[in-house]
Input
Amino acid sequence: MAHRERQLPSEAPIVNLTIQQLAYLVAVADHETFSEAAASLSVTTSALSQGLAELERRIGLPLFERQGRRQMLRDEVAEVLAYAKRVVADTRDLGRWVAAAKHGGVGRVRVGMIDAAAVHHLHDAMTSFRDRQPEVDFRLVVAPSGELLEQLRRGDLDLAVIVDPVATDGLDVVPVLTEELVIVALNNQTIGSPKTWGPWVLFPRGSRTRELIERALVARGAAVDVVAESHQPDVLREMTRLGMGWTVLPLAQSGQSEQSGQVVVAERHLVLARPSARSVNPAADQFAQSLID
Output
């Protein structure tokens, strides 16, 4: 009569073990006596023994054998012990990761900034944060305020440093700094009466900075004849050098020094904007705080 081969189940049942039971097993393997193992885990010897007895019951295999007065791990449980060590080590790693996450030490921060903020004002804050938190995945997008605001509202960014928006619904907005907007005259001409200013090369219509500039020029009695537009301050400054027209730029991007007697026509306020309804992100919270401290 032919003998049938014994078929093992394709999927073995999951053994219901606890991390604590596995930690008990690892501790016993690492120490000479049960009392030393229990002390290393800050539990009583009785609690350790009960936990190991329950582990043995759930596995369904004897874990120990008596040698004289001592209980020794059986050679056959080497696989169980190796598994226990992996699980306990991974669990400790997870605990360290969770602790770091709670304090902003890991995770991802998606930041948007206008060019002036990223290049001239907040580069030290970004460098310092990345040095302090090397495990954080820090991503920076540099773009005009309008684009960053759209990305922020879509949830593509965690926070953004932008020119203060008119509509702040759904946002938490905190002041960061104020910039002076100064005139850059054509070929370094003397800046006389506002009626002699222009024509202009300015930021594009629809931008918050363009709105501030036009309002300030009109208030001073200057004609706003715009012959070219660009989002790029370097391009506007070069157009002025090439003789295309006058421009108005943030002082930090104007090529002028604070002692050069510049003409300030307006101020713009840079703010830190974050969605009011946002997920918990300790790393983003920590970086945001560093910008306003």
About this structure: The beta strands are 64-67, 70-73, 107-113, 136-142, 159-163, 171-184, 200-202, 226-229, 247-250, 264-275. Residues 152 and 159 are 7 Å apart (CA to CA). DSSP finds ten helices and ten strands in the chain. The radius of gyration is 33 Å.
